[in-house]
């Protein structure tokens, strides 16, 4: 992996032909919005290589949370060779992905409900990785997952809001801080009134955000309002 893998990845993501649903996250990086809109070339994106392992990123405006964005998967490097080799299958199963982290996917077909994360022997700091294998399973309901946890068939599971309220005093309950944003999106394609930006602004101003049925009411989440 070199700095060029980041440049390729970022350019591929903002390229309109890729149609990435997360391309908007690049907004603020020089020319990103214009590239996504098809008005500028992907080569004009504000990222360039300096040497083999150094990147220089140019922003159009100050972004205080920019360093946090870098931890989001869409900003990770991609191998042009692998993307070309796998084509439309790239990223859709364990065998169509590359790994440079402490673990690698094994056994994920793209639709199955269980797979493994196996220690990556090529990870640069593999001596610090204490686990050899992590088994992941997807359960159809939160109650099924919780019952498996209670039966010692799962080491950990997430809880939904109703379970959190009931079980937060039980042994083993742990809270993890994680930021999240919830929003309502207008369907302007099927409603001529909502297609009017001023109507949408009026509705936004009329909404009592603190009075909405709080998504965090039954959990330990704290709203930023």
Automatic annotation (TrEMBL):
Gene Ontology biological-process annotations: peptide transport
Primary localisation category: other
Compartment list: Cell envelope
CC per GO annotation: cell envelope
Keywords from the named record: Signal, Transport
CDD domains: PBP2_OppA
Superkingdom, natural source: Bacteria
Gene Ontology terms, MF aspect: peptide transmembrane transporter activity
Coiled coil: none
InterPro entries associated with the record: SBP_5, SBP_5_dom
Domain Solute-binding protein family: 1-211
Pfam families: SBP_bac_5
Family that this chain belongs to: Belongs to the bacterial solute-binding protein 5 family.
Name of this chain's protein: Solute-binding protein family 5 domain-containing protein
Organism lineage: Bacteria, Bacillati, Bacillota, Bacilli, Lactobacillales
